[in-house]
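Minimal example, chain plus 4'-deoxy-4'-aminopyridoxal-5'-phosphate.
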Amino acid sequence: RTVYLNGEFVAEQDAKVSVFDRGFLFADAVYEVSAVLNGRLLDNAAHLARLARSCQALDLRLPCAPEEIEILQNRLIAENNLREGAVYLQISRGNSGDRDFDFPGETVSPTFLMFTQARPLIHHPKSQTGIRMVSVDDIRWQRRDIKTVGLLAPCLAKEYAHKHDADDALLVENGLITEASSSNAWIVDAGGTLITRPLSTHILHGITRQALLELAKQNDLRFEERPFTLEEAQSAREIFISSATTFIWPVVSLNGKAIGDGKPGDITAKLREIYVRMAVEVTGG
Ligand code: PMP
């Protein structure tokens, strides 16, 4: 693979980052993951706008203008002949030459890296079979709206899920589901209304979540942005998760108990179909 590092496109084995990089030592870095379909970035302007917000919240400099970042992303996609998958990008506060909690001065420039990951988006098997989930305590920090690389809590949540014969975890705080370990969480109630938690510092402001709310509006699907409990999820008609690289995946069980009839739900399937149609259309497939 060709990767991008600080202004250069190089073979992955030639990309070197210092052991004193603050991303490595302090997780002092932000990231974004944009989906690529038909060789084109999906909803990338929204991802780059969120990147700018994450940077601003941490007083991190954007290495270049969003339009320039997009040019670099597209060049990387072309270099790797990526048709379907994602572009990962990360910006850390850079290499301050020592381990020191204090922010380095303006003289230290950010470390900016990107790589591509090939992965089926439209025909991913999990989108058909659905996934099994377990619930775990949400032990993450208090600013989940900032997309930082401090991802140990979601790694632990996924590991816990795998050890308990599940694919992924729903995170619970004060009896309420915040989101999933790396995606937003939704339920469908008995009347067919889509429910997802409102935006706040408790969750990541998912780009796919926002696109789905917009599509729900356009397609006259009822939805509500409100917190929901683990019990509500357990007895919901359907559950699904959303993210840039899954689009929508149905959830067929939670803590070992079937959701609905234990098969991917109809409304989830319909919303996924609407999203996929939009995604194919805007990427010109
Ligand atoms: N919540 C969390 C915790 C995530 O890691 C992600 C994936 N980046 C999402 C939600 C979904 O966000 P998006 O739709 O922008 O990929």
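The longest helix spans residues 266-282. The domain at 2-118 is CATH 3.30.470.10 (D-amino Acid Aminotransferase; Chain A, domain 1).
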